[in-house]
Task: structure prediction
Amino acid sequence: MLTLHKILHKVEIHKICRTISTSKALCSEDLYVHRDSKDNHALTPFDFSEANLKRLSAIIQNYPVGAQRSALGAAMDIVQRQVGWIPISAMHKVAEVLSVPRMRVYEWATFYSMNKRRFRGKFNVKVCVTTPCMLRGADVILQVVEETTCCCVGSVSPDCLFGVDTVQCQGACVNAPVVVVDDDYYEDVSVCDVQNIIQTLRCGGIPPWGPQSGRFASEPITGQTTLLENPPPPGFGIQAALMSSNPGPCPPRKM
Result:
């Protein structure tokens, strides 16, 4: 039986442990729980366009009969590209077309964060906040994105043009900091780059994607550090006798 002294001791330890943790708790039901809303419920109108239905049918034919579930990822991507996000009624339609239980579609939609289960604006701006990007100023980049788009993380701008999210590693760490808008990567971004990208999108333009620093891909930003001259030709370092065009007869073998 716990005594009052032991209870107070546990409380003090809990307080100490709580003061040690300084990272912000990110609690969200958006990844795994559905709640009906005005725009997202089982009766929300959705149907594949004729072109997308043909596209999905062609993809399904790539798999054996009974393995239509393998086309689930492609089907979800087609839905998202058609309407911009994936309402639950669209999930039900995918389950119907693929002849799989709805639960299989729910599992896919809640596991992969690229599936947008609510409207995230015409342009979904995702700022990477993993360690390499954070070391290169991702916190400042995120602040500028929020100010320029007029919306904070997790919300949509009043004009419904932009939705801002933070994401983990986007796989372009050597080009940090990285901002992703829908499918396009903008790397080596500065504050001015972010402002120009957002303004170009707002005006209906398409910003040039890729590194914004002038480098072609992922080469060292300070310039070449190896292979500063043409590599040596074939045969470099091989004995001259081995390179002779007429080596002559081989010497007799000793018995």
Q: What stands out?
A: Strands lie at 123-128, 162-167, 178-181, 184-187, 210-211. The radius of gyration is 28 Å. Residues 4-20 form the longest helix (17 residues).
